Amino acid sequence: MFETQSQFGQLLKRFETLQNRFFHGLETEIDHQQHHVNQARQQLMGQARQQSRRLNRFTDRLIQRLDQRKTGLTTGLTKRSQRHQGNPLAQTAGVGLAVGLLAVGGISYVVYQSLQKQKEARKTLKSARGVDLNRFAGKWFEIARFPGKHQDIAGMTLTYTVNQDNSLDVVCTYREHDINGPEHTERKHIIVGEPNDRSHLKKQLFGPLGTDYWILELGKNYEYAVLGTPSRKHLWILSRTPKFDEARYEEILDRMLEQGFEIGNLVKVKHDEHAAVPLSSHLQGLLEQKQQYFKKEQSKHLGPNPDKRDGI
Question: How far apart are CA 155 and CA 179, in angstroms?
Answer without folding.
Answer: 6
